[in-house]
Structure formats: structure tokens, C-alpha cells
Amino acid sequence: MSQPKVLVVLSSHNKLGDTGKPTGWYLPEFAHPYKELAPHAQITVASPAGGEAPLDPSSVDKSDQVSVDFLHNQESLFKKTEKLSTFVGHAKDFDAIFYVGGHGPMFDLATDETSHQIIREFWESGRIVSAVCHGPAAIAKATLSDGSYLIADAAVTGFSNAEEDAVQLTAYMPFKLEDELNKNSGGKFEKAAEPWGAKVVVAKDGRLITGQNPASAGALGEAVLKALNERK
After folding, report:
1. DSSP string, 102-119
2. Over 70: is that where the pLDDT of 180 sits?
3. How is residue 4 annotated by DSSP?
4. Which residues contact 1 (CB under 8 A, 6 or more apart)?
5. Gap between the Cα atoms of 183 and 205, Å rounded
6. Neighbouring C-alpha atoms within 13 Å toward the C-beta of 22
7. Kind of pairing, strands 42-47 and 82-83?
8. How many separate helices (H) and strands (E) can be counted in the chain?
9. 200-203 sheet: strands from edge to edge
10. Which of 67, 90, 113, 223 has the lowest tally of Cβ within 10 angstroms?
11. What CA–CA distance (Å, rounded) separates 200 from 158?
12. Strand, coil or helix: 47
């Protein structure tokens, strides 16, 4: 039996608002789901600009062996990404799409019309749509063909206001992710009992899967794999 195919999407944005600091995608939020998925799925990586997707240097934690191994052994995955626009019209070639977090998606994928179109195509062809931490910024404003939000009336999670405040970056964000997810889901935002606690939410018949923060990344990968296996 052929392996399921997952399209992983990374941010191409590398500047953290007007802080003067770099940003991008967050290492453990790709490394840990990759560890869960890679043995069982074919993975393709894309970004809006294609080519090298900027890794947030602050996300490199040398005490996280899974992430360190990924950084050393899977460099080509994020240095040679496909251009996201090439996947318009190709949802049926995949089984799931996964948006990695990091602050980058708040600035590009949140409002990227090509990304929104791809999300709509994936959803309306019965595929799995998943994201972790700030990755849900990509789906927060995404709409379906009838004009409704993808996340309307669906339980959803993402990086919380309390967590954004804790890292002192709320003022530099274009919007508050928790507020946007809560508004467009119709008040269905969920979060862990305490900031930084792991939280994965599976909704809409198991096809909408979101994780709250870096601690949720491994469990998010497990949930996506479970959903893929249930759809074989």
C-alpha cells in the first residue's frame, strides 16, 4: 500500500515586525511532527517564496535532540522548498496539509490568497487540514467556496494571548491569533489549562487538527498520523 502524502507549508517571512529581530518558522514545530510522520508518509515542503524558508534562530534549542537531529539531517527540506503556488489545483495529489508555526505565518500565510485557495481545495476535496502554534494563522481567515470560514463553528486552538504576552511580542503582531481564531470559529477557541501546556484539538469529523504551542507539536504529528490511518 502506498504511503499517504503530506504537504508541509513553511513561512517565507523573516522579519519580526519592527523589532529588528529575525523570525520565520519554528524548528521543533516541524522537527517533532516530522519524526512522527516521516516513517509513514511522503512529505513535500513548500513556502510562499520557494527556496530556503527562514528558520527562526531563536527556535534552535540544543537540549532538544529531536530538533537538533532534524536540523543536521534534514536541511534540504527547508532550504529547497517548492513554491506554494505550484500546488494550486493539486489537493487530490495529497492526503493532508500541515502548517508549521513560528511568528512568520502571522505576517505572510495569514493573508496569503494562494495559501487560502489551497486550503479551500484541500478541505473541499476531503483532505486533512492541520497546523500548530502560529501555523493556525494560515487557516484563521481561510474561507470556503460558500464564503464561510473554514473554522466556523469548529473547535480550534493556536498560540494563546497569554503565551504571546509572556514572550512580550503581542505589540509586534499584526493581530492576536487567539482572538482571530475565537472570532472566526464562533467562540470555539480552546487552550490548555495553563500557558505552555500541550493541547491538540481535533474537529470537523477528524479533518481539522490544530495544536496550541511548541509543546503540542509531537502530539499534533501523532494526531495527523492517526487521522491519515483512519482514512486509508
Report:
1. SSHHHHTGGG-HHHHHHH
2. yes
3. P
4. 232
5. 21
6. 12
7. parallel
8. 9, 7
9. 82-83, 42-47, 5-9, 96-99, 128-132, 208-211, 200-203
10. 113
11. 9
12. strand
Asked if the model's pLDDT at residue 112 lies above 80, the reply is: yes
Asked if residues 80 and 44 have their Cβ atoms less than 8 Å apart, the reply is no
CB–CB of 83/46 below 8 Å?
Answer: yes
DSSP string, 141-163: T-B-TTS-BTTTT--B--S-HHH
The residue type at 232:
K
Instruction: Output phi, psi for 97, to 5 deg.
Output: -125, 140
Could you identify the residue written with the cell 481567515? 141
Alpha carbons 69 and 48: distance in angstroms, whole number: 26
d(CA 131, CA 129): 7
pLDDT digits (tens, 9 = 90+) for 72-97: 999 999 999 999 999 999 999 999 99
Positive or negative CA dihedral for 60, 217, 136, 34?
A: positive
Q: Are 170 and 178 in contact (CB under 8 A)?
A: no
* The pLDDT value given to residue 1: 64
Q: Which of 59, 4, 80, 9 is nearest to 37 (CA)?
A: 4
Q: How many C-beta atoms lie closer than 10 Å to residue 142's C-beta?
A: 24
The C-alpha atoms of residue 34 and residue 39 are separated, in whole angstroms, by 9
Compute the distance between CA of residue 34 and CA of residue 12 in angstroms, rounded to an integer: 19
Compute how many other C-beta atoms are within 10 angstroms of the C-beta atom of residue 92. Answer: 11
